[in-house]
Design goal:
Layout lengths: L3 H16 L11 H10 L4 H13 L24 E4 L2 E3 L1
Antiparallel strand pairs: 1-2
């Protein structure tokens, strides 16, 4: 079962692929907004782009919650244990 982080990374990669289709002639329509967003992020362009991608992907309102790989239950983790020496476990 994919974790939320995996779904979001896949979504971000899909967005990046779709951005290749943006016509250069429309970019100037967004220059003012992009400068304003960067200013809102105290000049941190990487944070500004990350925020825009999060919003475009629809993954921006809530924090991610870990899920069990086996059951998908929230706030539960799957732990794999292997015995390397009889009577002892390594996790």
């Amino acid at each position: 079962m994919p974790q939320p982080e995996d779904v979001i990374r896949a979504s971000a990669n899909g967005i990046l692929k779709n951005l290749e289709e943006v016509n250069n002639d429309v970019l100037n329509l967004f220059t003012g907004a992009s400068r304003q967003l960067i200013a809102q992020c105290d000049g941190d362009a990487e944070r500004a782009v990350s925020m825009a991608l999060a919003y475009i992907s629809g993954h921006y309102k809530t924090a991610l919650v870990a899920r069990s790989l086996i059951t998908g239950a929230e706030k539960m983790l799957t732990v794999k244990m292997q015995s390397i020496i009889q009577g002892r476990l390594s996790i």
